[in-house]
Amino acid sequence: MNTTTLTTSITIPKMDLLLLKDLAKKFGWTINNTSSPKTGLEEALNDVKTGNVFHANSAKDLIEKCLE
What we know:
The structure is a single chain. The protein is mainly alpha-helical. The chain is 46% helix and 0% strand. The protein has 3 helices and no strands.
């Protein structure tokens, strides 16, 4: 029997991964996890892109912000 395969990508919550793996096992599918955790540098660059940064006017201002 000639089987045509399709490679696709889906985004699911982490809590549903076990269910997906169980379903894939029952149907004989394979799952390749292509996502990798972001490095600290990637997270920092993303923060800069989204504007999630703090600019202190002085050392005192920075210390006060850290103590909040």
